[in-house]
## 1
Amino acid sequence: MTALGIIGIILAFALLMYMIMKGFNIYLTVFVCTLVVAVTSQMNIYDAYKVHFMTGFTTFFKNNYLIFLTGTLMAKAMDITGAAKSIAKTIIKVMGTEWAFISVPVACGVLCYGGVSAFVCSFAVFPIALQVFRAADLPRRGIPGALCFGCSTFAMIAPGAVQIHNNVPATELGTSYMAGAVNGFMACGFMLVAGIIYLHFWLSKAKKNGEHFIAKEGDDFGEEGDSHLPNFVVSLLPLVITIVLVNVKFNGVAIAPVEAGVLAGAVSAVVLMIKYINPKELPKHFADGAAMALLSITNTCAVNGFGGVASNSPVFGDIISAMVNLPGPKLLGLVIGTTVIAGICGSASGGLGIAVPILGPVYTQLGIAPSIVHRVMALSSSALDSLPHNGYIVTVTNGLCRETHKDSYGLTFALTVIIPLIGSLIGVALFTLFPNLP
């Protein structure tokens, strides 16, 4: 039964990836994959759905709905006020078009670190990236990689980042968003520097091969005057408010819980930049944000429900034992387990939602500090999650940028899979050598 159960879990994960890549409904996908695990593991099928699936689903919803809601409202506020675009435009203007390969991911990273969702960051920066890539005559197919690198790697999983990727381990392990700060910042710093170097290399090589910027039908290069956008400093204030409220502590306690801090950022954005929006449309924007948050979290909950079934399979303990007992640093198994689960889910947050409750306690019981477990899992969640079936990757590549995976995913893969994976291993080395750093 053990061999059949292990084969069943592997088959279910492969089927999950295949069905998601083929565009099947996420709920149908997880229901089918749950059935595969239940049958091959000889689990009671009714209990698999009623008990294990729904426990995984509802637990993730309970722990994370408020951060999804407030995060979506924050992103909505930064979007409708023009603050996100103002920040992006200013950074790119200061750095100049000659440094487009740096300014685009940096602009995305600033927004992402402050709590703006990857989707909103990409949509805000894309029109500006289009202009600077054209001005510098850089190949257009490099834009998806630059956007995805800035939004879904170094800034998303850095210590202090107001993102779900810090919230999930913090909630489960009782840690802070700044857990593993020194080593975490060094690992993320490597991702940033290595990514910029590789992006520069890729763009230079493409230009040497005769590639130029070639506009696509529908590209809009109209310059939006600064009068239509809020001041850069004012635009930045909501992000600063959020980061301070969530990360600054008095007597060991943060000024505000993360949900309250993010909500304060959203409210401050509306209050400070009210003249750039129509107040009468705020209820509609709130309703849209709430609906988006509900859709986003239930999709992730569905994947976590499947994870709940897989983790209760009779053979799952054997799989965990194999990862924990890998030769080398203890944390190596944690990296492999987290990044593989995130890759199968096609989601860093979804992968963490499954991996942290399962692997977190195993490694803390081995004597590893919760702060180290938190940061290593956050770092490793940002590698295989960016495989071609990732919803964000598909949206940015095919939808927003109107490029094909064939033309542009090679760069995206290097920037969002290979480099974060190396960064995760660097994190393992740092935490193994210097476990007592704050």
## 2
Amino acid sequence: MAVHNMMYNYLGNSGLRVSEIGLGTMKFGEAKDGHYPGNTTEEMSHTLMDRFVDLGGNFIDTADVYQAGLAEQHVGSWLHKRQNRENMVIASKVRFNMDGGNANGSGLSRKHIIWNVEESLKRLQTDYIDLYQIHCWDKATPLQETLRTLDDLVKCGKVRYIGASNVKGWQLQQIVCESRYMGLNPWIGLQAQYSLLCRGIELELVDVCKNEGLGIIPWSPLKGGWLSGKIHRDVQPPEGSRIAYVEGDRAKRENSCHFSYTKFSENEQVWKLLEIMRTIATKHGKSVAQVAIRWLLQKDTVPSVIIGVKTLQQLNDNMGAVGWSLTDDEVEELENASKIEDMPHPYELNVMDRIRTNLCK
């Protein structure tokens, strides 16, 4: 067995242990109608997953819509041929359209969820999914219908645990409260965009997760490549990168504005943050990407961080975020450099909560 420094943390208020680095699969496969060209072949996907396991990883995250089902297929063929299923924690998601000609081909209705989980199980070549997550809120479907359906999937064994992704604070709190009121299985995780350049979930979602026992699983910890160390002032983004791809097409840029080159290159705070990260990385003999991921791993609400890679070099570098720590002073410096400016009301009053908490210590 390979020697590694990986730790395994409990996901939320559950007995499920996941590796502190999770492998995202959005870049597995290249569907004709998929996003972001240059994704991995099935062979390379298998190579990446093999290496991930060698380095101690046990948590793989996918979704039905990733490359129109190809990502799940690549994970499934790898699981079937090369892994003991029980050694792995497999997560997938449901919500978005998988059948454009079907009026019930999307959403969180009982019909769509049950059809979708069966299709995902076929692609994954497994009898169950460890963590099944709603990919986004569905305003059209009564929440109780969604909750009961997912609870039924747990009871019949097709799903082990339930989680959410990309929801708002009030939505997650409503999920928690309704599940408790209805006597259903609790949800254990929130997958959300979270990084030094995207800290919006700290306004409400982090508190909900802390209070209700949900683990936060960050996605896009490198903000689409902005925190990879490859972006420099007055230099265009590397050819083949996601930022370069999005920047080259106006429509795609608008749909993917969360890592737009133009948006961040004109923000002096971003360049100051990157300078601080490079200094800290040099001090520890680490990469900028490792500093970005390490900052997330030291959050007490974060059991695992999802990385997305296309090459072994990227995987090896990202996995180097384990086995060391930032100092308290470095964490404070990073947070001061990346703090949200001009906090909207009532969030600017959150400082009063911190003052009162400190007085109680």
## 3
Amino acid sequence: MDASSSPAPGPAGTATARAAEVPGRRTAEPADPLAPYLSADFPWYGLDEGWTGRRWLLQAGAGGARPAQPRAVDYGSLGHGEEPPRQQEAHGGRRFAVVVTVARRPGRRSADGTGVLEATSAASAAWLAGSGLLASTWPGQLDRNRRQEWLDQQSALAWDLADDLGGAGWSPLTLPVNGLPQPFRYRESEYGWVLAGEAPGVLLGAYGRGLSAYGLGFSAVQDLAAYTKH
């Protein structure tokens, strides 16, 4: 990394520490919610055909600038099950799983041109998934100010954990990806579970609550329209 540059926040340089970019926290939706997904230059992953429940779009985001596509999509999330609450309410018994797809990117300039983003890695997917889980399951009894303090504190912890996927905070878990066994790193907390690993062409993260990760499988999405039907 260029010592004269400002690193982007988050492990592996993901530019997602800003609240509006955390997966699980919705921003203003474009006129066509599929547009950012369809513009991506990498495959999207979701739960495989073993999942027969509801599917929904969450958000897709950009992490860095490239000459041809200054705001190219770098990551995004697809939801399965019951959508987490958007307002101040306890997460209760909602059951959901969200799959986070992260493009494989080399080191590059940040979107604002003031720093350098490191190459993406499984740690990038782990941190995005961990942050998404926190944004989806925050304690409902907290007021707005205390919620932000809690979220900042827990996000910093998720950052540290993501940067140490080989550490004791994670355990191995093998799940099918496109029908083939693939190793992941997995952890549980009182808020739910998070996992991270790789898939053909991308890095994968996932988080959920109320659904066991052990029975899930992932596959490349053939028809994103399935995520727009309610």
